[in-house]
Design goal:
By secondary structure, this protein is α/β, with parallel strands linked by helices. It has 15 helices and 12 strands. Helix content is 52%, strand content 13%. The radius of gyration is 26 Å and the shape is globular. It binds flavin-adenine dinucleotide (FAD).
C-alpha cells in the first residue's frame, strides 16, 4: 500500500532510473514513486543496441530492465513519452508532458543520462545518416544493415570508439562494406592507448573493416530523398484504410461506428503481428520540421490552421462540400435533390483516412517515431473539440472556426486543471462531462 505523504520523482527511464525505482522499493520506501521519461519504451538497457540486439540475436523483450507488469506490481507510476521541461526547487515541483502536468516531490532524482555528440557539419540531417542511442535507433539501424548487406551497400562510421567498432562488426556480419573514419591514429586511443588500439584495428581489418585514421568528416553530401516518398506512403495507407472503411459500410450495410471500430482492430492487429513493436525514428530534418516554431507558434498548429481554412472553403464553397453537408442532414433528401450520395461518402471516407495518415506521419516526426497508441490521447479530445466547436456529431452541420475556438478552450481548461494540480483521471472525466453537457444543451442533436 502506497503512503501518499512522501513522493519520490525520478526523471529518466534508463538503467539508472529503473534501478533507482527498484532499490527504493527493495529498501522499503512506501511513498509514491513516479518515473518520468521522454522515451515511450519501458526502461531498457542500451549496451545490446550495438551488440546482440543489433545483430538480431537478442529479442526486443530482453533489453528491458523489468517486464512492464513489474512497475504496476511495485506501485511505480510511469509517465512514458513525457519530457520534464521545468523544475521548481522552491515549490518542489517538476513540470512534464505536453499539457504541463505539475507534480510535487519530496525527493527528486535526475537520471537523464547523456546524448551522443552531434557532428557540427553540413548534411547530418540527410536521409541515410543515423545516430545510435535509443531502441528506436537500433531498430532502424538493424533494417539499414540488413538491406546494406543484401545490396552490397557501404556503411561509413564516424568514430572508432566502442560503439563505432561494435556497429562496424555487426555491419560486417550482415555483409555490408564498412569504412570507419577516426580522428586519432588508432581506435579507442583515449581509453586503451595506442598498442591495444592497434590490436583492435588489426582485428577489425581481418574482418574486412577499412579505416581512415587521423581524419575527420567535414561534410556529408546527398539528398533527403525519402521524406516525400514516406509522406506519400503514409497518405496512401490512410487512403486505403478510408476506402476499406467505406467498402465495409457500403458492402455489408454495417453501421459506420461498428465498421470503423472493427477495421481499426484489424489494422492494429496486423501492425502488432508484422511490426512487432518496431518503431522507426524519423529523419532528423523531418523531425526538426515538425517541431519547428513560427514566431513562437508550433508548425503543427500552423499546418492545422491552414488545413482547417482550406476545408472551411471546401465545405462552404464547393459542390463536394455542400454535398457532404446535405448527405449528413438527410441522405435520402440529398439523393432526391440529385446529390451523388455514395460518391460523396466514398470521397469523404478516403479523405478522412488520407488526413489521418498524414497526421500520423507528422505526429511520428514530432514524437520521434510512430507507436500504435500514439493517437489514443486525441480520441476523446477530438470528439470534444468537434462537439464543443458546434459541429453536429450526427452530421449536416460543420463549424470549422468553432474547432479552433474549442481547441483553445480545451487547452486553457487543461492548463487550468494542471495549475490546480488535478490528475489525468479527473481531467478525462471533466472532458467527458463537457461533451455530454454540450450535446444535451444542443437538444439531443438529431434524436428529435
Ligand atoms: C549503443 C550503446 C551501447 C552501449 N554499450 C555499453 C556497454 O557495452 N557497456 C557499458 O558499460 N555502457 C554502454 N553504453 C553506455 C550505457 O548505456 C550508459 O552509460 C547508460 O545507458 C547510462 O544509463 P542512465 O540510466 O544513466 O542514462 P540513459 O540510459 O541515458 O537514460 C536516461 C533517460 O532519461 C531520458 N531523459 C533525458 N532528459 C529527460 C527529460 N528532460 N525528461 C524526461 N526524460 C529525460 C533520456 O531520454 C533517457 O531515456 C552504451 C550506450 C549506447 C548508446
Amino acid at each position: 500500500m502506497v503512503d501518499a505523504d512522501q513522493t519520490f520523482v525520478i526523471v529518466g527511464g534508463g538503467l539508472a532510473g529503473a534501478k533507482a525505482a527498484e532499490t527504493l522499493r527493495a529498501e522499503g520506501f512506501t511513498g509514491r514513486v513516479i518515473l518520468i521519461c521522454d522515451e515511450r519504451d519501458h526502461p531498457y538497457e542500451r549496451p545490446p543496441l550495438s551488440k546482440g540486439y543489433l545483430l538480431g540475436k537478442e529479442e526486443r523483450d530482453s533489453v528491458f530492465v523489468h517486464e512492464p507488469a513489474w512497475y504496476a506490481r511495485n506501485d511505480i507510476e510511469l509517465h512514458l513519452g513525457e519530457t520534464v521541461d521545468a523544475i521548481d526547487r522552491e515549490a518542489k515541483t517538476v513540470r512534464f508532458g505536453e499539457d504541463g502536468t505539475l507534480v510535487r516531490y519530496d525527493k527528486l532524482l535526475l537520471a537523464t543520462g547523456a546524448e551522443p555528440r552531434r557532428l557540427d557539419i553540413p548534411g547530418t540531417d540527410l536521409a541515410g545518416v543515423h545516430h545510435l542511442r535509443r531502441l528506436a535507433h537500433a531498430e532502424r539501424l538493424k533494417g539499414v544493415l540488413a538491406s546494406l548487406g543484401r545490396d552490397n551497400g557501404h556503411l561509413v562510421i564516424a568514430g572508432a570508439g566502442w560503439i563505432g567498432l561494435e556497429v562496424a562488426a555487426a555491419a560486417r556480419e550482415y555483409g555490408a562494406e564498412v569504412t570507419v573514419v577516426h580522428r586519432d591514429q588508432t581506435p579507442l586511443n583515449s581509453v586503451l592507448g595506442p598498442e591495444l588500439g592497434q590490436l583492435f584495428a588489426d582485428l577489425h581489418r581481418d574482418h574486412g573493416v577499412r579505416f581512415h585514421f587521423g581524419a575527420t568528416l567535414t561534410e556529408i553530401t546527398g539528398q533527403d530523398g525519402m521524406v516525400l516518398p514516406g509522406l506519400a506512403a503514409a497518405l496512401a495507407c490512410g487512403l486505403v484504410v478510408g476506402i476499406a472503411n467505406w467498402a465495409l459500410i457500403r458492402g455489408f450495410a454495417m453501421p459506420p461506428i461498428i465498421a470503423t471500430l472493427s477495421s481499426s482492430l484489424v489494422f492494429q492487429s496486423v501492425a502488432i503481428a508484422y511490426g512487432r513493436g518496431l518503431r522507426i525514428s524519423p529523419p532528423d530534418g523531418f523531425a526538426a520540421f515538425t517541431t519547428w516554431q513560427v514566431a513562437g507558434v508550433p508548425m503543427m498548429a500552423v499546418a492545422g490552421f491552414v488545413l482547417a481554412a482550406i476545408m472551411a472553403v471546401v465545405l462552404q464553397r464547393t459542390i463536394y462540400g455542400r454535398s457532404v453537408l446535405a448527405v449528413g442532414q438527410n441522405p435520402r433528401a440529398a439523393h432526391l435533390a440529385g446529390v451523388k450520395v455514395e460518391r460523396t461518402r466514398f470521397l469523404t471516407y478516403a479523405l478522412s483516412g488520407g488526413f489521418a495518415g498524414l497526421a500520423g506521419a507528422l505526429m511520428a516526426g514530432y514524437f520521434g517515431g510512430a507507436s500504435l497508441d500514439m493517437g489514443k490521447d486525441y480520441l476523446l479530445n477530438s470528439i470534444a473539440v468537434v462537439v464543443i466547436g458546434g459541429t453536429s456529431v450526427a452530421g449536416g452541420r460543420a463549424n470549422l472556426p468553432g474547432l479552433w475556438g474549442a481547441s483553445l478552450f480545451l487547452f486553457l481548461l487543461v492548463t487550468m486543471l494542471n495549475a490546480l494540480g488535478t490528475g489525468t483521471g479527473l481531467r478525462l472525466v471533466l472532458t467527458g462531462l463537457i461533451i455530454i453537457a454540450v450535446i444535451v444543451a444542443a437538444g439531443g442533436e438529431k434524436t428529435r
